[in-house]
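pasting for ref
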Amino acid sequence: MNSFYTMEANEVVRKLESDKECGLSTKEGEKRRLEYGLNEMDKPRDKSLLLRILAQLKDPMILLLLVAGGLSIFISGGEDVLDACIILVIVLVNTCISISQEDNAQKALKALEEMSSPAANVLRDGKIQQMEAKLLVPGEVILLEAGDYVPADARILQDSQLQTDESAMTGESLPVEKRADITLPSNTALGDRSNMLIAGTVVTAGRAVAIVTETGMQTQMGQIAKLIMKEEGGKTPLQEKMGEISKSLSFACLCICAVLFGVGVWQHRPMFDMLMMAVSLAVAAIPEGLSAVVTIVLALGVQRMAKQNVIIKKLPAVETLGCANVICSDKTGTLTQNKMTVVEHYPADQFKQMMTLAVLCNHTRVEYNSNKKPVFIGEATERAFVEKAHEHDIFKTQLDRETPLIAENAFDSTRKRMSTLHKQGDGKYILAVKGAPEEVLKRCTYVATTQGVISLSKSERQRIQSVNSQMAHRALRVLAVAYRVFSVRPNHLEEEELVFVGLAGMIDPPRQEVKKAVMQCIHAGIKPVMITGDHKDTAVAIAKKLNIFQTGDIAITGDGLDMLSQAMLEEEIEKISVYARVSPEHKMRIIKAWQAKKQVVAMTGDGVNDAPALKAADIGCAMGVTGTDVAKGAADMILMDDDFSRAVSAVEEGRGIYANIKKSVHYLLSCNIGEVMTVFVATLFRFPQLPLNPVQLLWLNLVTDSLPALALGMERTEHSVMEDKPRKTEEHFFNRTFSVRLAWQGVMVGALTLLAYCYGYYWVEDGEVANTMAFATLTLCQLFHAYDVRSESQSIWKVGLFTNKAMNKAFVVGIILQLSVLLVPQLQMIFSVVFLDMSEWIVVAILAIAPIPICECAKWFNRIQEKTKKRPA
């Protein structure tokens, strides 16, 4: 791209072959439109519905479910399709939910288009005419005034007290002064290009004549659009873990089929019967309810977050935030209020007079909304004075009426001050002055005190200068206020022999709730990082107040980042807490550097300049009130009330969701291991008959793989989740502790089932009773075991036996279904079971309940071990 900001205005006009007096001709404009195209954003090609469906069906878990459905039809000879139908419904639901998530890049680009000004005042053929912004071409001469959106990137040719709001593009919280009569170095950051206008920003004050330098995708906004289009959304940690589970289960199922079938054939059992049993066991071992459980648990989490004013656009997003190691946040509008506020003043005893003068010397308009609350319209700094004055019952409308404006000297960047002349009720005239302290103070001869107006001594002047320096060091924007009274109206505004009144320090202050939220992040092992387009000193001052910047941390500017290679940035990334004067490209580099360190990165922001980083991050979080449409379109979640602490609540929710999904996996697989062990041990040790038949296995699969697993997903989040460090992305889902727990609990379920079978076969000496006892014990044992899994470490009595209402309902439904099969004669025939007598039912009940005391003892032993480890040596 051309560096037009390095050129003189006339040189830019010559380079673009235009005329600043007449603009382009209509013929030349049409010619250039054919060459450069329309001044609008490119649109990504939409994927067809078929491609979206196929993309969903490529998921390993979905493929595994479809295979399981086919196998279930095969083993039943096509007569029993209930399990296959359930699987098909699960697949369809998951596919519909995923497809309903719109293409976020397309949304963001649509919002970018809508941000452009619909019309622009253009100089064509020497005449001013209004034209659609999308028809502009490079070389077009445009005219802008306060309130206009800038329709394209442009070099300023003429200006009159011009200021623009660039916060959405650069993160600069204050309006930026613009000038036509300067040239800048080639390495000037975007936020410091004061002779350029950026497409999508707003003119807040003054007027300008400018020449369009770039349009469409070549503008700074277009570069952001390219970054959004280019950035592909990676897999979330949850998707990676589910893929891991799918692969592990696929391998396990193949092994089960092969080994069980091989052992059966080696033992000269009927080949077809062994094939049926092997396939049935493989189908039972696949927790087809898991995919539905994950979807429903995430959906419930989304509903809970919506009640807290957090909108989740993608289901996995809330879980992803739960494992975030780093939260990179924009400053302006996210950590701060995006509203200049007077926070300090000197001296304290002159506050009322200082506010009165600052409100008089002010262009802010005060209007009232339907609720009769004041709405302040004007430049941010001036608005800050009026808002502060209103808090102390100093009203601008009343002052303007009682002390009308007579004349003024407007603020400009050379004078660095503003003065207004007003007529007082006593017939005298008062000149109110505000501006840069060094400019105002050197024109002051007197100082206002509680004793009255006295001469400004050298020591008092030095004290004022010292206070000014201290305020500036705290990154406050400091303005001085002074006045002079005239008996008769002066011929011109004499800004000499002024009476110094005071200094006002202002800043875009941190949001009240953010400091607590930052401390919660740090306590939870999450590193907060500030990324802003604002100045370094201001950023560091805010970061210190929020505890983001601590002893030993580093702050770096965009220029400093440019001097670091990506490899060097990755080495230093953990030391840097504040990034200032950065561009969208810099933000992308920062996100990528953290991701290269295997960290899960969350990014919060509200501006157009945040959009690429919001999309590149593992989870993007946009502000709902101050956030631009572009930021919202690129983000995965939106904080509707702009409360940063909601992001911390989402972290807790995400961790709770992951913990609940892990509980569901724990329950499903430990139960399935018990089923596999029961059949495999019976086959290996040549039991006279197998404890379970294929129909019973599929029934088990239906009863225990659905409601209890879903109920575990609805478990309340344990308070301890925010005391743990974030889990690492490389951490295996089936880590050693989890795998050992799965294994021994699966063996426990299988052993209890085999005990029931052996009691019936060898004590009662009845094969049908043995089969029925094994079937009843295995089903009921799994239902009771669901209560054990509700907490990995806490006793079920401490968690509360009946606190999970969904679990209680699932248990009751499971008991009713199983008893129906065991007691209803018509169903007994289908499932090959018989009536049990009282003694047999007592044995079944004891074995079914046994997992609760066994697991309680194991948890107690683990808690004792944990306390021993923590005890000092």
